[in-house]
Specification:
4-stranded antiparallel beta sheet, 2 domains, Jelly Rolls
């Protein structure tokens, strides 16, 4: 699972501990202690980082890049559960009890991760209880998002599903633009379809309709300029 590992103190990439919410309550000195426990790993686009059912022994922090967590359905389709990007982490449930991974994780682009071994993480939690509280907060947020996704996929219209995912990406990946919000999409049209339970054709058709309505402007496959956020929010009502 973990190849090409190096110590974080000789890595040229930015210190991941400063990016992660679970370490936000730590002082610079305490962050330095955490950094000493970290090892670094690099993956190329398409590399499988974790396989469903595999035993994990480390907390995995995304330093740079993006990965997707997904399961394969009984009929062979891919269902994307999460998109993890810079500052996100996964594997936390496996550190608090012995549990195999419940999903696959694959790199969407060249990705650098930082690893904290289970044994070291458990010591950190004992020394700094706030870390455990932050992990619980993150898990609650993920559960809320999954519940919202299940509800939207079960009862939401196509407009609601597409609008919901665009708003999610706007909040996480959007940057201010003179005309609205520029969104670097983490997924292709097909990937978005796997994320919200639609076909690629349906996603493409609906995004074209949103463009015709002046709500967004598509700038290639992976970039969207959101012109009217309020219109997307109305689609959720």
């Amino acid at each position: 699972m973990y190849k090409n590992i190096c110590s974080c103190d000789i890595c040229n990439h930015k210190l991941c501990t400063k990016k992660v919410s679970i370490f936000s309550s730590l002082s610079p000195e305490q962050l330095a202690k955490v950094a000493n426990l970290i090892i670094h790993k690099e993956y190329q686009k398409g590399d499988l980082i974790v396989m469903e059912g595999e035993s994990m022994d480390s907390l995995v922090i995304i330093n740079e890049g993006q990965v997707k967590a997904f399961r394969n359905t009984q009929d062979g389709r891919e269902q994307i559960l999460y998109i993890f990007s810079e500052g996100d982490f996964f594997g936390e449930r496996n550190l608090l009890r012995d549990q195999a991974s419940t999903y696959n994780v694959k790199a969407l682009e060249k990705t650098h991760v930082c690893l904290i071994h289970k044994r070291d993480f458990q010591v950190l939690v004992k020394d700094f209880p706030d870390i455990a509280l932050k992990v619980m907060e993150e898990l609650c947020q993920r559960l809320d998002r999954l519940e919202h996704t299940v509800e939207t996929m079960g009862t939401g219209t196509v407009e609601a599903r597409v609008s919901s995912v665009l708003l999610e990406f706007a909040d996480k990946y959007g940057k201010a633009h003179p005309k609205g919000i520029m969104i670097e999409l983490p997924l292709s049209r097909e990937g978005i379809a796997h994320y919200i339970g639609l076909t690629r054709e349906t996603v493409s058709r609906k995004m074209s309709m949103l463009q015709d309505e002046g709500i967004l402007e598509m700038l290639g496959n992976k970039k969207v300029l959101l012109l009217d956020r309020a219109a997307l929010e109305r689609n959720l009502e």
